[in-house]
Amino acid sequence: MNIAVVILNYNGRKLLETYLPSIVQYSGEAEVWVVDNASTDDSVDLLKRKFPGVKCVVNAENTGYAGGYNEGLKSIEADIYVLINSDVRVTEGWLSPMVHAFAADPQLAAAQPVILDDKNPERYEYAGAAGGFIDRFGYPFCRGRVFDTLEKENPQYNHIIDCFWASGACMAVRSSVFQEMGGFYPHYFAHMEEIDLCWRLQSAGYKVQCLTKSKVYHLGGGTLTYQNPRKVYLNFRNNLIMMGRLLPHRDRIRVVFSRMVLDGISAIRFLLTGEFGYFKAILKAHMDYYQHLGAIKRYRRQRKDAEWRMLKGRYKGSIVWNYFVKGKKRFSDFI
What we know:
Blueprint: E1 3-9, H1 13-26, E2 31-36, H2 43-50, E3 55-58, H3 64-72, E4 80-84, E5 88-90, H4 96-104, E6 108-117, E7 132-134, E8 140-142, E9 145-146, E10 149-150, E11 161-162, E12 170-174, H5 175-180, H6 193-203, E13 207-218, H7 229-246, H8 249-272, H9 276-291, H10 293-301, H11 319-325, H12 331-334
Parallel strand pairs: 1-2, 1-4, 2-3, 6-13
Antiparallel strand pairs: 4-12, 5-13, 6-12, 7-8, 9-10, 11-13
């Protein structure tokens, strides 16, 4: 089984210099690639000088995470792509559990390792933790991370699970299935693209898992910090687009309307606390969602409606209610 470890880079020279050595050292016989998303720094020169064994694809323009990987992976032949952020540190043996899992189960299409915080290694990291879930209103959360609450690594979460989504910070995906699904939805640019892909994978009958014998350490916020109006805009907009694209008809209007109401409450809270950048980000996200309705309708016409209520990793309750009203901050409090 041929494995390609693929790092998407945009002006990340310092991150590559810091984190690429561990990937090169501990990836065994896997090919290591960097897909450069039209960087304007000297990232490509750094690769040539310090990492001659790392292969490089240079995209003509920066089309974000989704478009960047879609374009770059066209040039890479492998059975399994391991898509990994440029700010992830790996350790010895990190790839073996993923290789064995994909070899053993042809229905496994995507998987992530446990993702811990490189700054605070005893805690899970925001982007993925120990497996991704989604609630009835489309809010994503993780085993080990609910909203901004990050748990300490918990032995209770050490078993392999089928989950709803695998984190784009470090996600292994079967290349044939990635191409079959048409890759990531490029309009997202960044954020939610891995959840959209994993939703489509499950709807097509494939599995998504968190493989807990593999661990990596993620710095996080290497491109956009978690508290950033641009990130808020992308997350709110892309989540609405994803729900519009993928929810079955009987749920779509109700869930999208509910989300927009909840988004509106968040926007008002930001306005009242003087956080005008976040307020404007949510308004812009909603306006852009309306502009995208035509594309959503075209996609839905050519896609067979797929039930989502029985997909693995879907929580039937509301994490907003549990977290903000009932005060349940940990995954184990309500799952």
